[in-house]
Amino acid sequence: MRKPYYQYLVTIIIMVMWLFLLNSCDEKLNPYHYGPYLEEGEKLEAEHISTNQPTSRAEYSKFIAISLYSGVGVVRINEDKRPELVKTIDTRMRMSHIKFDKDGLLWIAAPFGINDYIGERQIYIIDPHTEKVHKRINLPKELMRPSFFVFFDDKVYVRGDREGCSVGIGMIDRNDYNSKLLLELENTGYEITTGMFAHNGYIILNTGWTCTDPDSTKLLKFDPVENEIIISSKFANSCTYDNNYIYTAGSYYGIDEPRLYKLDYDLNVVDYVKLDDYNLSITHNNKFVYIMDDYYLDIYDKGSLTKVRRLTVPFDLLDPILNYNTGFITNNVLSINLNHIYVISEDKFYPNYFDLGDDGGGQNPPQLPEGYTLADYD
Fold first, then answer.
1. For the segment 308-364, what is each residue's pLDDT rounded down to a tens digit?
2. Cα radius of gyration rounded to whole Å, the chain
3. Which are the contacts of 37, defined by CB distance < 8 A and separation ≥ 6?
4. Residue 205: other Cβ atoms inside 10 A
5. For residues 33 and 40, what is the distance between their CA atoms, to the nearest angstrom?
6. Within its chain, how far is the Cα of 360 from the centroid?
7. What gap in Å lies between CA 62 and CA 58, rounded to an integer?
8. Do the beta carbons of residue 249 and residue 194 sit within 8 Å?
9. Per-residue DSSP letters for 124-177?
10. How far apart are CA 106 and CA 124, in angstroms?
11. What is the pTM of this model?
12. Which of 142, 284, 290, 373 could serve as 168's disulfide partner, Cβ 3.0–4.6 Å?
């Protein structure tokens, strides 16, 4: 027997009302939004891992932000050198550079935004204390795909990687958040790992191959006062740096072997050694340079570039890449990939420092040898 038509009508009305309620749910019940951008004032989802949360935004200026699958991990550095994961904040996007500023605000460069769109040109600033979006900065079109930034006192300098064959360098005024283009670099490719960093008032840009020119890989020294490139070097590749030297590792156009180079800040070669592989990532601590491929972590003395030891990469690290946003959290706590943080001594890996899994999760202390503490390795 066929149902009376009004029964179908009642079913349709109920479905329409249900959809309406889902879309107009009170914000107190559903405070999170899922649009194409993070909006100013938007509340972000966060998980509090520790019961010892900061009491003010200013405290976050002493924290480190690390990239995780679940967004941003906020890490406290304690006096005894045992880092503590305090919270995770879900930013819903792939981030190429994240850092806290002097006021405790978290700056994010996300070249593809939420929708993996190549035309993205947003810099986001998050208040980690309220877990809300503090500011969304719309950059000029010439700074499309912002990938890195560096802080100066009242300015933030931004690198836009555009479509892979040219780069824009811009500036954001930290007082009013207005932005402008300073310089365009043609025949300049994507960033290679650490794509932009500052030293003594200058900015170093690490650039990769362009679409058409394999000889376009260069390290560039930029003067932000005169808005010009003052020095160029061909020894650009996976890169790390300290107060005295720049270290790059990998292959170089016109050189038929992989190398580790040590450069001064005038981009002159101080020393180099031959390496065993081309596909490498690199970081450092106060004593050593660490170079990783898919299977090994090679440790080099920073002074002599002598190889100290080769460690086998733990089996649970698939396609390992040293986290160039962070590198070493302390001298012996190293961030690898997105969810792996390890204690490393000169002769071994210790088990995963934070047990983060794929979605955040808790944290475990490092399992150090009996009778040792983390301070013994610092």
1. 998 887 766 666 677 655 566 666 677 666 556 666 766 677 666 655 544 444 455
2. 23
3. 113, 114, 122, 136
4. 22
5. 11
6. 17
7. 8
8. no
9. EEEETTTTEEEEEEE--GGG-SEEEEEE-SSEEEEEE-TTSSEEEEEEEETTT-
10. 8
11. 0.80
12. 142
**Backbone torsions φ then ψ of 15, nearest 5 degrees:** -65, -45
Give me the DSSP letters along 167-220.
Answer: EEEEEEETTT--EEEEEEEES---EEEEEEEEETTEEEEEE---SS-GGG-EEE
211 pLDDT more than 90: no
Question: What are the Cα distances from residue 121, in Å, to 30, 195, 217, 245?
Answer: 28, 17, 24, 32
Alpha-carbon distance of 249 to 11, in angstroms, equals 65
Torsion angle, alpha carbons of 153, 101, 221, 219, to 10: 180
By residue count, the chain amounts to 378
Nearest one of 124, 114, 134 to 172, comparing CA atoms: 124
Longest dimension (CA), the chain: 90
- Across the range 155-163, mean pLDDT stands at 88
111 with 146: CB under 8 angstroms? yes
d(CA 332, CA 346): 9
Percentage helix, strand, coil for the chain under 3-state DSSP, each rounded to 5 = 10, 45, 50
